[in-house]
Here is the input.
Amino acid sequence: MQRALFPALFAAGVTFLLTCLVIGVKLVQGGPTLTVVGADADTWSWIAFAVVIVFLVQLLKEPLLGLKQRLPMPDVTGLLPDEQLRNRLKPWLIALIVVGLFVWPFMVSRGAVDLATLTLIYVMLGLGLNIVVGFAGLLDLGYVAFYAVGAYTYALLSEYYGLSFWVCLPIAGLLAATFGCILGFPVLRLRGDYLAIVTLGFGEIIRILLNNWTNVTGGPNGIGGIDKPTLFGLEFNRRASEGAQTFHAFFGIQYDSSYKVIFLYLVAVLLVLLTIYIINRIQRMPIGRAWEALREDEIACRSLGLNPTVIKLSAFTLGASFAGFAGCFFAARQGFISPESFTFIESAIILAIVVLGGMGSQLGVILAAIAMTILPELAREFQEYRMLMFGGVMVLMMLWRPQGLLPMKRPHLELKAS
Amino acid sequence: MHETTLYVLQQLINGLTIGSTYALIAIGYTMVYGIIGMINFAHGEVYMIGTYTAFITIIGLLTMGVGSLPIVLLLALITAVIIASTYGYAVERVAYRPLRGGPRLIPLITAIGMSIFLQNYIRLAQGSRDLAMPVLISGGIEFGDPAVFEVSISWMQLIIWGVTLVAMTALALFISRSRLGRACRACAQDLKMTNLLGIDTNRIIALTFIIGAALAAVAGVLLGLYYGTINPYIGFMAGLKAFTAAVLGGIGSIPGAMLGGLILGVTEALTAAFFPSEYKDVVAFSLLVLILLFRPTGLLGKPEVEKV
Amino acid sequence: MSENLLDVSGLMMRFGGLLAVDGVNLQVKPRQIHSVIGPNGAGKTTVFNCISGFYKPTGGEIRYRGKAIQGMTGHRISLLGLVRTFQHVRLFANMTVIENLLVAQHRHLNTNYFAGLVKSPSYRRRQREAMDRAAHWLQQVDLLEFANREAGNLSYGQQRRLEIARCMVTEPGLLMLDEPAAGLNPRETSELDQLILRLREEQDISVLLIEHDMGLVMGISDHITVINQGAPLAEGTPEQIRANPAVIKAYLGES
Here is the structure.
């Protein structure tokens, strides 16, 4: 323990330096004058507490590590039933969940359904980014830019050309993919970290352009009055717009505003199910295999005639297109979009979802998306600390469990005895 | 002289000022990259923290009644450098060292997580509003024709140039003359080999983060005084710009970072002269993409040879 | 000239101040096993990296089937039919053995996304063909029983054989092996010997070999090129090389 004393003192000193000025003293702007005030005793006791904790942890590092090794690592996969049973139960479970997804909204409040719709958007974004980060191992820090491209595609096409949601959905995906392709091509030839910083920059640039191209995008004021999706041309408004019919009039039922909410939710469910299906298929396709191979050994891939740039680009573009779909739906749901919705914070949240869920694990990402959207709603105070925690979660997850809470392997093809 | 010429001259002066601070921040990116081959995403936040520390110290000392401005500024600089270096060290210890040797994606994610964490940590501790400091150093030299256009170089700008020059010279001397500097260069050449030769590479890597953070803090103090306002989000753009500067000059190359910073600063200032000023960020970013497209090694960088 | 499968002339590779390869010439004829030997650090692997496109040669010309390929990217060269192994085995260790072989057939499988999403008949057929080809090659290298095992769990000798099988499923014209016998025991080496000869007989390919194991080189090579300090030293049949005094001095004599 004596040997640990100096490093422990050092670490405690570092902690004190890290906290003393920036937390212990606060800058206060009172009109034109700036003053400093010492933090209250509470804050200082927190600082002291942190310093002591760091000191003790460093001092007792070895005994603590020994203790940790005796603690069993939480292994979520171990809780699942064995493989045979699982494979037999799986289709039933999936069917049950899908039916539940469709029945559930008719039994709960409007607010809950609305929140579920928002969650589904994040599920879609998480799954899309998971292709890029989890499958292809590329860090995309400007994922929100493609989300913005999708949202603005629908908003603008609907405003200027009156195109419907269903027409715009594929266009939004395609356009986002095109942006991904144009951006990815020059960068993906280079080392991975360049992609991270270029996408980071791209995310900002898209936002700046949207903010400043006022006569088209409305600048910071955004675009409002975006049409909601229709059910084969049936609208969910109280009154039909010209030449259209409303849902309640067509079926001869009373108008209820919750129909619209439920319909949007169902559209989101369909989109998410489609996303899951596509990603599941692609994982089993040659390209999914190539992503994994590329993550393992790029040089070997090249020696076998795989073009790394093209393979990475396919993941990047595909991920972008899902963000485009999600963006298009987001614009339709909100009815109003502005550059405010597409800040770096959004990118960070989506990345946190992927990281928490486990890079490459679809189920993990879905659960993480649900947790990350619902938690802030449950505890409003949480909102204030949300980003701090997301940042912390990313660091801690990578240090403690880089494969995520629910790691999952890509299903491998097997050679059957013939 | 012609009005436009004078106007461009003024923009050049402004550009060189901003550019030299970019260069200071870019050093941090380039040195870390040169040794461990990774981008330190939290570097921009370290710069931001340096600025906050400087503000706190300056205001604190002024409130305590320390009257002499040079002493206040010097103390602010020292405090900012110490605190920011500590942050640089902490970032390395927490987000990079435990993950050394693993897949490259992992430390990238911890670093970006660290960046988000630090940004919000300052936001929670100091508030998210803009904080403005009274102008401490005013005045300057003016020339040109008052009837047409007056070009001015403020004292603050001269100070920025002077301090940058001193900091850069000190760094150059340290790298080329001192024993630690030699160890740094050895690590940049071949980390594993240097380790085998009995040099504590962990120490050298930590040192690189610390030097980078210290220079970022210097830039933070200078820019904080120059602009007079700060908020917790300034590290984001500054980091992005400085990284662009590092890539422009050739990442891994220290003279490259200096050159890249100056070029970027001037380009931005000239853009701002003729277009709406928001577009200068767009131009900076486009420059980054163009460089990566046509000359990924930057102006002074050496091509990397892949080890097969 | 055109009867040569691979024609390397005046190859130069410079790293900064170091001239690693200086004027190397190689001619590989169809169905020939051609070895490149030389002391450690002679530049053999650098020559390999230049031919396979991992380095951009500083000078000289490389022609494959009469087509100039110097400076092309690695994957394009591989697509032309020059496929290599590595000095240190580079398998996809976390993937199964059979999947290693499927990745190598990526070019044959590249049907469009839509076909894969709906599992169209042609997509299924290609998948099946790829599986069959992979199984065939596993049989050839005697690894069929390990098909569904993770590649990283194989023994070193098995990993070497898998790497060769992985090259062969791409249906190459020239197989380039970088020290395939390194780390193998004598029995495994002689198996490798047999495998290389059989590939030449049955698959109608040429083999370019870098090797330290003199027994292997002398036993199976049709032609040998010796390089020393980046420059060509001698070339000829194994008998000629064995008798060449310069070679003995530079290489055999010292080891």
Notes: The two ends of chain C are 35 Å apart (CA to CA). Residues 121-140 of chain C form the longest helix (20 residues).
